[in-house]
Amino acid sequence: MIPIIVFAGAAALLWHLRRPKAFDAYAPAGTVTLYKGVPYRMAIRSQIGSGAADVVARVQETIRNRISGTPGTTAPTFLAIDHPPTWLPAGALGWGRMLSVFDVTPSRDDQTAVGRAVEGLGNIEWMMRLDGKSFTDLP
Length: 139
Prior knowledge:
Layout: H1 2-18, E1 31-34, E2 40-46, H2 53-68, E3 77-80, E4 98-104, E5 110-113, E6 117-118, E7 122-129
Antiparallel strand pairs: 1-5, 2-4, 2-7, 3-4, 6-7
């Protein structure tokens, strides 16, 4: 009877170790590598809060021009959000309420992180790898 229990336990352990691992396309906290030729979706949180429609339109146009001028990027989509960034300390004030979401395919390997400032745009809110692999996988 004992050999059957040992065999069943070994089979269960082997099955557990061989099953597919959970896939997480979103970037983890900390520095990550963006690989050349791999497509990513990024969300940038702009520093603009609530404002007049003309101010929001000007900020959106500035972001659209900056992103569209970069090779390997798509035109941004703008979203209004009401929750604070996860990368700010609890209770922080003055966070922006507009996300710019766009796809980018880097022309060289680069490193970045969630929360990092992107000059002229805002801070990276989240990143997602679009090639079906995790951020820890090589291209």
